Sequence to fold (238 residues):
Amino acid sequence: MLLVKGSIEDHFNYAIELEQNLFEKGKLELLEEVQHLSKMIDIHYIRQKEPKGLGHAVWCARKFIGNEPFAVLLGDDIIQSQQPCLKQLMDQYEKTGSSVIGVQTVPENEVSRYGIIHPGSNNGRLYSVENLVEKPAKEDAPSNLAIIGRYILTPEIFTHLEKQYIGAGGEIQLTDALQLVNKLENIYAYEFEGNRFDVGEKLGFIVTTLEFALQNNSIKHDLLTYLEFIIKNKKATV
Fold:
């Protein structure tokens, strides 16, 4: 399951006017690229009608998911890795048969921005989870292993999300429901491999855009030239 807004729906939808325009102008390579996106997969959209938190957003999809394990991907976390982060978690689910949440270490002064796990025993990158805390104060955090926008969950989560308990920030928190699930069945955390980019904040969005643009050989040189120009001019005005 992917939590999205209208821009994502439009991105993967057919763009009839654009496609016709590209066809008429003979820009067939661009036309093929545009059409490829709409043909990749079939996507079903479910809207969260009220901003009641991540837990509520997941609960809104309960009828579509049914009694199956499912994935949650948060769009403001972009993870670049040799093996997709979600595939890493799926592999761990196949081994454990239990919910698996993606985690990474964060600086101690940033733990209050995340759900934080209290790790138990570990087997390499895989941790058992003793406890989960949503956005704890630095002095109350049980670790600096933060939950990062990727989950493989069992349908048991809906039993607890249905109660719609209000948690941190006055919202229905997925982390709180996971803590309740953890009392009945094992939950694991996997410290996935890869670089994570946070596009949920202004600077993170800009940094992420630059990082990916610099990996594109068709624009890398021009972008570096422009950045050098900006830096040179900024230094001159200081």
Remarks:
- DSSP finds ten helices and nine strands in the chain.
- Residues 202-237 form one domain.
